Amino acid sequence: MKSFLNFAVSLIAFGLTSYLAIVQKWAVQEFCWCVWLAGFFYSWTCVITAVFQIMLNSRANKNYYDEKVPFIKNISPEMFTLGIIPVTLLIGFVALYIYCWIFSFYGLFLSVFAEMQPLNLFGRNGFINSDFFTPVTYLAQIYWPMILIVLITNAEDFMQKNAWQRIVLPFKSNEIVRIHLMTLALPFLMMLTWAFFKGAYQQLTIVLLIGIFYLIPKKRQKDKTIVSQHSNPTSGATQ
């Protein structure tokens, strides 16, 4: 039942995104940048929700940390809670910075192979000379429905029991694989759709790529349970 529900949500997301692409007449370059934008927001959402969950549940889950790091047993729950907040914020900040760096690097490739207007933001000499968040803001104002659809489709990821795993979830899931598959499939799909449909090839190519993005079965990570110190160990109260 859960698998069917996940597929149904992905199918709806595929339909909505395809509708937007056709109605707004996206070019292939626009779609590439939309995927880049959605991937960036997905990664940041994983980190931000994880950081808040860790801080809010730190005291209740102290037993879990005691087992992982034995010397923490000597720290009172109050001091542990106060101490884990700056540590978690620091780790979260580093993770956000790393994802910015990764998507900046990916954006450089897009600015060469998916150059689009305005060139001062998405051109070969534009993206590299702009600050990272100006292109992000520009795209988000136009393509926010794509961001929203992707976040809703992947909402289950943001409710993982083990928040520490969620920080690196974009690496562990197959989201990056999907992007690579789309990159590899792009020239072949464009040639194929152009051969059969001529002038309408861009929209059809985008719809096929959207299908790859949403409909390839997603790799679900095994979610380890964190037992709360105030719960029955057999009940598996989670973070």
Return the domain count: 1
Mean pLDDT over the full residue set: 80
Helix-and-strand structural type: mainly alpha
Rounded Rg: 21 Å
Task: Tell me, briefly, the overall form.
Answer: elongated
Number of H/I helices:
10
Please trace the helix and strand order, writing H or E for each element: HHHHHHHHHH
- In total, how many beta strands? 0
Strand content is under 5%
Describe this structure in words.
The structure is a single chain. 70% of the residues lie in helices and 0% in strands. Mean pLDDT is 80; it is low at 227-239. The protein is elongated, with a radius of gyration of 21 Å. The protein has one domain (2-215). The protein has 239 residues and is an all-alpha fold. Helix 2 (28-57) packs antiparallel against helix 4 (77-113) and helix 9 (175-197) runs antiparallel to helix 10. It has helices spanning 2-23, 28-57, 62-68, 77-113, 119-122, 133-153, 163-167, 169-172, 175-197, 201-215. The protein is built from 10 helices and no strands.
